[in-house]
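Minutes, project huddle
Topic: does the predicted pose make sense with manganese (II) ion bound?
PN asked that the exact inputs be recorded in the minutes so nobody has to dig through chat later. Recorded below.
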Amino acid sequence: MTNIHLLGVPMEEGAGRRGCIMGPAAYRTAGLAEELAALGHSVTDLGDAQPEATGPIETEYTHLKFLPEVAGWTRSLHAHAHALSQQDVLPIYMGGDHALALGTVTGHVAAAAELGRPQYVLWLDAHSDFNTPASSPSGNIHGMPMAFACGLGGFPDLLGKPLPAKLDPTKLCMIGLRSVDREERDLLQSSGVQAHDMRAIDEHGVARILRPFLDEVAQSNGLLHVSLDVDFIEPDIAPAVGTTVPGGATFREAHLIMEMLHDTGLVTSLDLVELNPFLDERGRTARLMVDLTASLFGRRVLDRFTTSY
Ligand SMILES: [Mn+2]
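Predicted holo structure (tokens), as shared on screen:
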């Protein structure tokens, strides 16, 4: 049994279109807490986080959108993640756009550094979100959180203080990539991120990609943060996202990853991001994300009783 704490993150300022603010409500409506409790876990819903108030944030990159708002969320979520990691709980951050990882990942990396344990991140996303302010074509900050967490240069003062600890890019594993900007690709490759595109899944299958990474986490007694973007999944079955890219992970590929993560027992924190309920079809994407989360917390194929779709 795991002591799970749900924290809603109704933020949408990092994304290019509105709607992710409704994400936490959609997860509650789709029964995330009830599904996890039915698997035997203790579930506490902490309600929604609030952003800190910030003044204007200085930067030479004037194309960065909603900078004070995103900085306010980053500071708040960094503090929440740091505090939650010091309790015997497994936090699930119900987003909210992917800029929430600016705070959640850096908070967990800081706490892991204090513990003297390596922090790993599994990034399940069509995008690598490894732009810096200088490389970003759009100025949408949800395309930058991993570059920020790894300590790349050019970022304004999002955190209100220097990063307490940087994420080691070689401990960052990305699966599902199929939309990466040109300069972003160069940054990814030069930094040593374990980046796997969709072709790697096509050729090898998710199990052969994921297992060596999970073995590495286990052998080094690492902590594992998982960040699951709706657009990791094929848009035909997960339409509720503002950044759909064709050719995503199938239903079974996504579930297999979750089942393997459960088998290892290594996951210590989880982001569910980019769900845009305004774009959903009768809640099917929210239900799929809840379903995947249930697989991560122990639901097996043989527990999936007959239903109509
Ligand atoms: Mn994405």
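Observations noted during the meeting:
- Residues 3-297 form a domain with the Arginase; Chain A fold (CATH 3.40.800.10).
- DSSP finds ten helices and eight strands in the chain.
No decisions taken; revisit at the next huddle.
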